[in-house]
Write a structure and sequence with these properties.
Helix content: over 70%
Number of domains: 1
Number of helices: 16
CATH class: Mainly Alpha
Radius of gyration: 21 Å
Order of helices and strands: HHHHHHHEEHHHHHHHHH
Distance between the termini: 42 Å
CATH architecture: Up-down Bundle
Shape: globular
Strand content: under 5%
Length: about 425
């Protein structure tokens, strides 16, 4: 039986998929712990606000995304020419060293050292992105890809919730332990301890991945990341892949802005960082549930309608958040409702990317898409930083996001009508 035939009959909940699911869970959790603590540390009134200046959480977002922009396509090339399971083990081993470095930098109160650790984690994740998404298509049958995506997205969002909740708790205690601008006592090591646990668990789960063979072992190594982007984009432009890619990456532009806005809600709503992390958790839970729902409702003929409906729902939700009163419960309800419809937008596009990409090019296609998603994420963080510099209140930036989503919904609807005609 051929590899393609074997994948077609492979059940969704197989050993390899479960191993990948757990590894991705702990990867996402560790990333969000360090990013969450650092974002809370530079938010309005926080100890490192003066280090990075007004809108510093936008700067954190840009710094986190740049490695993905520069390295994702190169990571996709490595994923195509090597065993994805072997690459995962190497990357998780490197993560252990990065976790130790980040623990020291947070404990000694070095803002720039903590930022360096965040960038190091982002570098590892940039290589892991095309590996994990490419691995899904190797571990499950084509008919199961949409459901696998939904489950991975759900697990990732649960990991984001856990990471953000831990970040909120850790940031609150870590900031409370500052004496003369430096963390002190046992709380100084809380960020490092939390990250180390998540990274260690991710390392252990990746050891259970099945051995996967390289899809394109003769592919030459090209250390110029932009050449891979160029050749892959040219291939994608020959069919619908490029349009699907840009529609998918737009979501990460929006997500970067939203994740920059929410830490400032501590000051806007007059609540603690821990309670603000509950808002982030509500959004993440809702997105996860929306992803699973979309995955099980997914049909080829429904995908374009789902995309239009999802973009329109995002537009309405964000516009409502832009004018909502500063009430915690109303904000949480609106975030949850907006997150639910997000899954209808993400999952059809992600499944189309994976199914349309050829086996021997899938790593580069997904790596390119991943890199572009973070390029747009950096643009979103930069837009947030620019608007905050112009003294636009953080919560009102939601209205800007809503208008942009409405434009995407109209473009998607226009293309759908054109295709039908």
């Amino acid at each position: 039986m051929s590899d393609a035939a074997q994948r077609e009959v492979r059940a969704l909940w197989n050993h390899g998929f479960i191993s990948l699911l757990l590894t991705q869970f702990f990867e996402a959790a560790s990333d969000n712990i360090i990013k969450g603590v650092l974002t809370f540390a530079v938010a309005v009134g926080a100890p490192w606000e003066t280090v990075f200046g007004k809108g510093g959480n936008g700067l954190i977002g840009v710094a986190f995304t740049l490695p993905f922009v520069l390295l994702s396509a190169f990571g996709g090339r490595i994923a195509d020419r090597s065993s994805k399971s072997r690459i995962t083990i190497v990357l998780k081993t490197i993560s252990l060293a990065v976790a130790a470095f980040s623990a020291v930098e947070f404990a000694r109160g070095s803002a720039w050292g903590a930022l360096t650790a965040l960038i190091a984690f982002a570098i590892v994740s940039a290589f892991f992105g095309p590996v994990k998404y490419g691995m899904i298509a190797e571990l499950v049958g084509p008919s199961q890809i949409a459901r696998a995506n939904g489950i991975v997205n759900m697990a990732t969002n649960v990991a984001v919730i856990c990471g953000l909740l831990v970040a909120g708790l850790v940031a609150h205690r870590w900031k409370a332990g500052f004496v003369n601008g430096v963390p002190s006592g046992e709380s100084a090591w809380l960020p490092g301890t939390a990250m180390a646990i998540a990274v260690l668990l991710g390392f252990l789960t990746c050891l259970t991945l099945p051995r996967l063979k390289a899809q394109s072992p003769d592919l030459p190594v090209d250390f110029n990341p932009f050449s891979t982007y160029i050749t892959t984009l040219k291939f994608m432009a020959k069919g619908p892949l490029l349009g699907v890619c840009f529609a998918w990456t737009f979501f990460y532009f929006v997500a970067a802005i939203v994740l920059s806005i929410l830490p400032d809600y501590s000051a806007f709503l007059g609540v603690s960082d821990e309670k603000t992390s509950h808002l982030m958790a509500a959004l993440a839970v809702a997105i996860g549930l929306g992803c699973v729902g979309a995955a099980y409702l997914d049909r080829v003929e429904r995908r374009q309608l789902f995309i239009v409906f999802g973009a329109g729902g995002l537009a309405l939700g964000f516009m409502a958040l832009g004018v909502a009163p500063n009430d915690f419960n109303i904000t949480m309800a609106l975030l949850a409702a907006t997150g639910l419809v997000a899954g209808l937008y993400i999952i059809p596009l992600q499944s189309m990317l994976q199914s349309l990409a050829p086996d021997d090019l899938r790593g580069r296609v997904l790596g390119t898409a991943n890199g572009l998603s973070f390029a747009l994420g950096a643009a979103g963080s930069a837009l947030f930083l620019a608007l905050r510099t112009l003294d636009v209140p953080s919560h009102q930036i939601f209205s800007v996001v809503g208008v942009l989503c409405a434009m995407v919904a109209m473009i998607a609807g226009w293309r759908l009508r054109r295709a039908a005609g």
